[in-house]
Design a protein that fits this description.
The structure holds two protein chains of two kinds.
Chain A lengths: L6 H27 L13 H9 L6 E3 L5 H6 L4 H8 L12 H4 L17 H14 L6 E6 L6 H13 L3 E10 L19 H6 L5 E5 L3 H16 L5 E8 L32 H7 L1 H11 L5 H24 L17
Parallel strand pairs in A: 1-2, 2-3, 3-5, 4-5
Chain B lengths: L3 H4 L10 E5 H15 L3 E4 L14 H6 L4 E2 L5 H13 L3 E8 L7 H14 L8 E7 L14 H5 L5 E3 L4 H13 L4 E6 L6 E5 L11 E4 L4 E5 L3 H13 L5 E5 L2 E3 L3 H11 L2 E8 L4 H12 L9 E5 L8 H7 L3 H13 L7
Parallel strand pairs in B: 2-3, 2-4, 4-5, 5-7, 6-7, 10-11, 10-13, 13-14
Antiparallel strand pairs in B: 1-8, 6-12, 9-11
Helix pairs in contact in B: 2-7, 4-5, 8-12, 9-10
The chains are: A alpha/beta, B alpha/beta.
The complex binds thiamine diphosphate and magnesium ion (MG).
Thiamine diphosphate sits at the interface of chains A and B.
Chain lengths: ~350, ~350
């Protein structure tokens, strides 16, 4: 279902999700062309979690993402050129090249910190929520993490403490283990958790939970809205699990573009999708599902969506030019920023 | 980088044929031998060879011994503790922590349980557990995946610390670590994995606490660990044409540390450069410098020089990361400075 938003907002949301998809498709190409910028992760196939989740928040709310953070940075409006420059380690990057893909952040956009340590941001987001409550701010904090983070002790320790202290935090768990290969099979890790239902772990300390289909932008939006209302109302934390299937390009340890760029027409002409990804595009890709929902609700025509697509692609090409043309930071920059600038 | 020139021709002991292996292959052979020879040997962990293309070499260990290779959840604190508990109860365990930075998730178990257990027992316990880490600047690891925690761990009495630098050394040191009966941190550098070198077919284990002179020389002693050994050897090679004769000592294990090998070398050269990838303050080089300062000040003809990673977190940008590296250029410059130091005096 579509999020409960005005039509113009629904189109903006689409544009933003498409930006994430196009930007990352180009990123995978850039990685293949080299030079290498190290190990990285893409958000393809999860756009309908992060972007609608951000739309359910206020711009004053804070969000703490993980190694799989590009969707959140772009979703919050970070400049695509500066994010790409960061990933390439350029001086014009969001963080001057200090963070890279693993640690891109944008404090001015309410993303104060990104951790590539599994489970790293869970307590930090709850701590930000504690500050919001103590300062009497009408502010929500969101911890974003993968299902793998539920394997770390930090998750349980934080759920328990946050429940006791009733801090205004939403724990957004992006479960992408379905259809994943997993480490034992030589692929990217999938979680190995004894609990059949991840929500049970949060429920054991009394947290309200919602498990939603992560390809359903409307369901994600509604669950996050509800969590935010609860947090603002003084009712403490909420645990939201958004479930998606692993995008085949994120099954191997290093991301791949298994069948080229996504074409919007696969949404209405699934027979034209490359065979390898036919099932994924037809049933598992939230972005194309959103396209179908927009068309079915007559909120846009195919031509209008195609026009947005060419605008987004042009913006991505501009970002690529900006980032590749940018210079690396001067050597001395390595010594700056160890402590707060006075 | 290629180490063939230093290792390929290395003659093995009489009757022992040497082959060329990558460091990764040698590590896998050591694990296979341990599996074969010791039914109580257990491996917990999934990323012994990191995320690079060589990682598949480990698959044959996994395939041959499925019951003794466990893929744990991402729960370093728990699975390091499992390794400790299993080692307290009859098994010999190697716990692969993966990227060395992840050992911080497990500090309570590694630093406050494993390191103390034998001592607290009054010596009644043995604790054959080895924590395997991949450390160092690895190109793009950024601040959270580039640590070299061996210096922090060296500040924890009760942990042995192994830092191999060659295929033969990794193969010889791993069984010694496992059989030592004491908790050991076994630290490989990600950049070592593809390096090739000679490995004897039936090598004997290498005892812990015995340094290896990786290159003989008379003018300057360079003590280097892990991947820095190779950087130091490249620098030494270059300086040969300038008439500077560099000795490169690889301690191979820093706990126990072969102080004698270092002190003897410094006694003949009178000059010391220490190279390693821990940060400058309270790093591996700091301790070695302190030992030489305390015990061999008379022998020194120039101030000790450390080539280390500066005291900043590791930046992501390749332009910045490379800036921090102890490169052959920096090492060579440090060695030249030793030769021309205004303190440099002839005995
Ligand atoms: C403490 C820690 N242990 C291990 C890793 C290595 N690692 C990086 S991503 C990853 C899998 C994370 O899975 P999940 O949290 O579900 O996120 P996903 O990548 O699936 O979105 C692992 C194990 C890490 N970054 N941090
Ligand atoms: Mg996951």
């Amino acid at each position: 279902m579509l999020p409960d938003l005005a039509p113009a907002e629904l189109i903006s949301l689409f544009r933003r999700m498409l930006l994430v998809r196009r930007w990352e498709e180009r990123l995978i190409q850039l990685a293949a062309e080299g030079p290498s910028f190290g190990h990285y992760h893409v958000y393809i196939g999860q756009e309908t979690i992060g972007v609608p989740a951000l739309w359910a928040l206020r711009s004053t709310d804070v969000v703490f993402p993980t190694h799989r953070n590009h969707g959140y940075l772009l979703g919050r409006g970070a400049d695509p050129g500066r994010l790409l420059a960061e990933v390439l380690g350029k001086a014009t990057g969001l963080n001057g090249g200090k963070g890279g893909t693993l640690h891109a952040s944008a404090p001015e956009l309410g993303i104060p910190h990104t951790s590539a340590i599994v489970g790293g941001v869970i307590p930090i987001a709850a701590g930000a929520a504690l500050a919001a409550r103590i300062k009497g701010r009408d502010q929500v904090s969101v911890a974003v993490f993968g299902d793998g983070a539920m394997e770390e002790g930090a998750a349980f320790e934080t759920f328990n403490t946050a429940a006791l202290w009733r801090v205004p935090v939403i724990f957004l768990c992006e479960n992408n283990t379905r259809d994943a290969l997993g480490a034992a099979a030589g692929g990217y890790p999938a979680s190995i958790i004894a609990a059949a239902d991840l929500c049970d772990i949060a429920r054991s300390v009394g947290l309200p939970t919602a498990a939603v289909d992560g390809t359903d932008a409307g369901a994600v939006f509604a669950a996050m809205r509800q969590g935010a209302v609860r947090a603002r109302g003084g009712d403490g934390p909420t645990f939201v699990e958004a479930v998606v299937s692993r995008w085949p390009g994120s099954s191997p340890l290093w991301p791949e573009l298994p069948a080229g760029r996504t074409e919007l027409r696969y949404a209405w002409a699934p027979q034209e999708a490359p065979e390898r990804l036919a099932l994924w595009y037809a049933e598992r890709d939230g972005l194309l599902r959103y396209v179908r929902e927009l068309l079915d609700a007559s909120l846009a025509t195919r031509e209008e969506l195609a026009r947005i697509d060419s605008e987004v692609r042009a913006a991505v090409e501009q970002a690529v030019r900006f980032a590749t043309d940018s210079a690396y930071p001067p050597a001395d920059a390595a010594y700056d920023n160890v402590f707060a600038s006075s | 980088m290629d180490t063939t020139e230093t290792a390929a021709e290395a003659p093995g002991p009489a009757g022992v044929t040497a082959r060329e292996l990558t460091y990764a292959e040698a590590l896998v052979e050591a694990l296979e031998d341990l599996m074969k020879e010791d039914p109580d040997f257990l491996i917990i962990g999934s990323y012994v060879l990191g995320l690079g293309p060589l990682r598949v070499l480990f698959d044959r260990v996994r395939a041959a011994y499925p019951a003794r290779v466990l893929d744990p959840p991402t729960a370093e604190l728990a699975f390091c503790g499992f390794g400790i508990g299993a080692a307290m109860n009859g098994l010999h365990v190697m716990v692969d922590v993966g990227t060395a930075s992840f050992v911080f998730q497990a500090f309570p178990q590694v630093v406050n349980e494993a390191a103390n257990a034998i001592y607290m027992s009054g010596g009644r316990l043995a604790l054959p557990v080895v924590f395997h880490l991949l450390h160092g600047l690895r190109a793009g690891g950024a601040a959270q995946h580039s640590h070299s925690p061996q210096a922090m761990l060296w500040n924890t009495p009760g942990l042995q610390i192994i830092l191999p630098a060659s295929p033969a050394d990794v193969k010889g040191l791993l069984p010694s670590a496992v059989r030592s009966g004491s908790p050991t941190v076994f630290v490989d550098h990600s950049k070592l994995l593809p390096l090739r070198g000679a490995v004897p077919e039936h090598a004997r284990p290498i005892p812990l606490g015995v340094a290896d002179v990786k290159r003989r020389g008379r003018d300057v002693t360079v003590v280097a660990t892990s991947f820095s050994v190779h950087q130091a050897l490249v620098a030494a090679e270059r300086l040969e044409s300038e008439g500077i004769d560099v000795e490169v000592i690889d301690p191979r294990t820093i706990v126990p540390l072969d102080r004698r090998a270092i002190l003897e070398s410094v006694a003949t050269t009178g000059r010391l450069v220490i190279v390693d990838e821990t940060h400058r303050s309270c790093g591996v080089a700091s301790e070695i410098a302190a030992i030489v300062g305390e015990e061999a000040l008379d022998a020194l003809r120039a101030p000790i020089c450390r080539v280390t990673v500066p005291d900043v977190p590791v930046p992501f940008s390749p332009a910045l990361e490379s800036q921090l590296e102890p490169t052959p250029e920096k090492i060579a410059a440090a060695i030249r400075a030793q030769m021309t130091s205004r303190h440099s005096r002839r005995p």
